[in-house]
Every structure is written in C-alpha cells, then in structure tokens.
Amino acid sequence: MHKRIALLLALVLLSVFLTACYDSREIDDYAYVVMMGIEHGVSDRIRLTLQIPEFTNTNMSDSGGGGGGNGGDDEERAKKENITVEAPSIFAAVAEADTFIPKTINFMHLNAVVVSEDFASSGEMKEFVVNLLRYHEIRRNTSIIVCKGSARDFVMAARPYLGSLVTETMEELISKADITGYFPKLTISDFAIKVKSTYTQALTIYAALNKGDNFIEKGQYYTGGFKAPSDFYAGDMPRTGGQEIELLGTAVFELGNMVGKLTGFETQMVELTLGNLKRTSLTIPDPLEPELYIPIEIKELEPPFTHVDIKGEKPMIHTTLSLEGEIVTIPSGINYESPDMKGIVEEAVAQHIADGIKRTFAKCQTLKTDVFEYGTEAVRHFWTIQEWENYNWRQKFSEASLMLHVDFTLRRTGRFIETAPVQEEKK
Predict the structure, then answer these.
(1) Is 132 found in the same domain as 176?
(2) Which of 102, 297, 369, 408 has the fewest CB atoms found within 10 Å of its own CB?
(3) Strand partners of residue 322
(4) Buried (b) or exposed (e) across 352-372, using 16+ Cβ within 10 A?
C-alpha cells in the first residue's frame, strides 16, 4: 500500500516538473508600441497612430542598460513601422490593428503619449488619456506630450539618434527637462491627478516639428539686442539639423481643456519657482552693456519658500527664492570679478529672474491657471473641502497679488579672478 502511494506521488511530482511553460511567450511574439499619437479622426471619432520599432533579442537587451556592444548594425536598429487606425476609442483601434498585425500589440514599453493641440483643446483629453491608466500594460510614468499640428506626423518623425533605439532617444530628450527647465517633465499619472485638482491645473510638455524653416541662411545679421534664450514655442527655434521633433514650452490646461501655452523661458521660470530645477543655465543682459550678455550657471541654495495670505479680499502670495551661481563668460570684458562689481551682477540676475516670474504669473492669471501650485499652500487655511471649493481658488488666483523676492549670490567667477580689457590699437 505504501509503495503504491509513493509511486503515485512520484508520478504526480514527475508530471509537474516535466510540464512546460504552456503560456510562455517570446520577445518576438509581441509588437511593442513605443509612441502613441491621438487626434481627431475623419472617418471615425479618433485617429490612433502607433510606432512599433523592430525589437530583437539583441537590441532589447542593449536597451536595458549596462550591456556591451553596439546592438547590431545602425540601420537594423532604426527599423520601425508606423500604423494609423481610426476607431471610436483607443482600444477599439488597437483591436482593429491586431487584425492586420501578425504579432500581439503590447504597451509595456510605451514611452510617450502624443496628443494633437487641436484634440487637447477640445476637452476630450479627460475621456481618452486619463482612462489609459486603467490598462494594466501602460505604466503610470509614461510621458505625455501635446504637439502642434498632427500627432501622426509627429510620431512618424520620431527616429533613433545616432544608432540608438527610439525609446532611448525619447527618454534622453525628455530627461533634458531636469537640466534646462525649458519644458516640464510630466507623466500621464501627473496629468490625471492635476486635471481633477481644485488647487492647481494640469500641464503637459509642448512639442512641434521643426524642419529648419526658421533658420535663415543669408541676410542681414541680427542687431536687435538681447533676447532671452528659448523665449519661444516649440517649432519656432531658428535651427537646423538634429531631430525634427522639438520639445519646448508647456501646454496649459483649465478643467481638462488646453487654454494656452508657455514659452521655454516662461517654463523655466515656473520650474525655478516650484523648486524642480536644482541646477540650470541662465543668460542675462550685461548690466553695463545691455547689447551683450552674461551666461550664468545657477543652482538652488535653499528650497523656495511660499506663503499665501487669504485674510484680505484678494489673496497675497509671498514667494522667496534663494539661489547662487557662477559666471561662465563675460563678453563685455568688464571686471565683474571685483568685489565692488559683483553686486551689480547679483542684482541683475535677481531682477532678470523676478521679471520673468512676474511676467509668467501675469500670463497665467489671464488664463486662470495656477501652474505655480500656489493653491497647495492656500488650501491649508481651510478646514473642510466644501469651504475650499466655495472659495473658488481659480477665480481668486486671477485676482491675487504676488510679492516676490529673489536672493542671488555670486559664488564663483569661473577660472578667472580678474577680467582685463582687450587692448585696442592706438590711432
């Protein structure tokens, strides 16, 4: 009897260990979507564009980081397919696409959701984009972008840079937000939270295609004086070469509808106020030679301090920024390294930042969009949600006064301790 039981157990265990992974799937069984474009359709409600690169076992392991080698020939790594389908919903479009794609569509490597500006302004973002979070394959840290023009054209223009994968290229472009501050680093999770918030408004990266139309080869050289770097919207930068896709500025929403946008410079001012920029570059007009400029490397000395006073009829917002920095170059040749002259630069930097923040603040007030998140401080004065909602922060923000103080300290002057004037030929 015991032998029979032992034999039966052995057979059961043997059958378990010899059973294959019946539901296993290989990498090549899936079509991995890395970018998704959403816009209004013509024959149906939406037009969905999916970019699917050729993922092989080699370049998939390379994209994970830490691997050696170049992942194969650059042309092989650059292969991709763009598929566009029109349907009444996103996942209806995916289901339709599955009928003519041999492999199973998978969103585990989705890097960015791109929405056309026209679609974002229609109020349908809440219905389509927010509900993407319900799908188990889509990560909450997927970036969200609003693009000028067609989302399909934008997705099709995205390509690998110098042999890298499309996913790596987009990730690296988006990561530049931490360095420049010219566009926000936001995800679909951030958008879903803020679009429902009563104390701040939703934002996304603003983008466009730049084919070099603003780059003028020949003509009269510019003589108009100082211009703040990147003080324009995506697609308007005078440049040539590089990626056609350009991330620059912020799309601003009110109650789920896109109502305006900020330039790259204005976005940088917002990021400084929020404390998201620990270190960045800033270019200011030379205080004594306004036609020239002084590049400054600045970093946060202390986190921004904000207090909102709601005792009066209109809110009073008090904000203090504490920054320090280093001079990169002095084209004018003025000896700003001198202890007597350092204060001039410090005051000029502080004033430049203050003017930029006040300008952006006034612009957002006209849009009734608190992108500075001052509402997160104002809400602390209320005991109940009902009291807060009755206060109507969106309206109050548009009437608020900003008391701003920027404290900037010049710590270093680069590798020079003194700037000597360039000798000119005597006549």
Answers:
(1) yes
(2) 102
(3) 302, 407
(4) bbbebbeebbebbeebbbbbb
